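[Automated response] Your request has been received and processed.

Submitted sequence:
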Amino acid sequence: MLTKSHIKLITSLNQKKCRQQEQLFVVEGVKGIKEFLNSSFKLHLLFSTETIFDAETITVSDKELQKISSLKSPNTAVAVFNIPKLTAVRQAIETLVPSGLIVALDDVRDPGNLGTIIRLCDWFGIQNLICSNATVDCYNSKVVQATMGSLTRINIQYVDLELYLKGYNNDIFGTFMDGSNIYKERLPEKGIIVMGNEANGISQAIERLVTKKISIPRFGDLKATESLNVATATSIVLSEFKRD
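Generated structure:
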């Protein structure tokens, strides 16, 4: 049965400091939970109004589910999973970093944007996502919801981004209004693609480390739009890097 301690724990996980302290995070919805159950993530607790999972489940009523859900319209089930140990994440990143494309985020703050970017990385076969320490927590419930399960397949590491880029030996790409037209560039299969903050773009400290500036040109007659949403820009950039 759902207890007061369950409710207290799950609602506390809306806060980053509590997620870090407990090393737990929340997943909501049947599809997302099944993705995590079929991954290497370890289940801590599972609550559902229906018997639909091949895992130990605490059955709850719709009213009880409402008490532990962060959604206005709760979706059948809420689960709590363990956050993987940082050492394991670091080992995975260090193993995979030398090859392929890497996406790096310079202080992306919106949970929806980060969740969408994680999903885009999954779609375009980007295995590694490097985040600055000020980027929103990938275990934020809104981020987890937006990834639709892709969080289970992407290696994510939070780092001092400036220090990390200084130690990287291949090309570092950044999106800027005055960069070269991405549609006319010969893009490599290896490198880091830096995407910037929603309001300020790529910071000056990171800009100094970018070796190749690229841009997504505006095609409208007025060309009055100042910028693209960072997740939208990421989709366009990754599509071009992956185009034959």
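Summary generated for your ticket: The chain has two domains: 4-82, 86-242. Residues 91-96 have pLDDT under 50 and may be disordered.
If you did not submit this request, please reply to this message.
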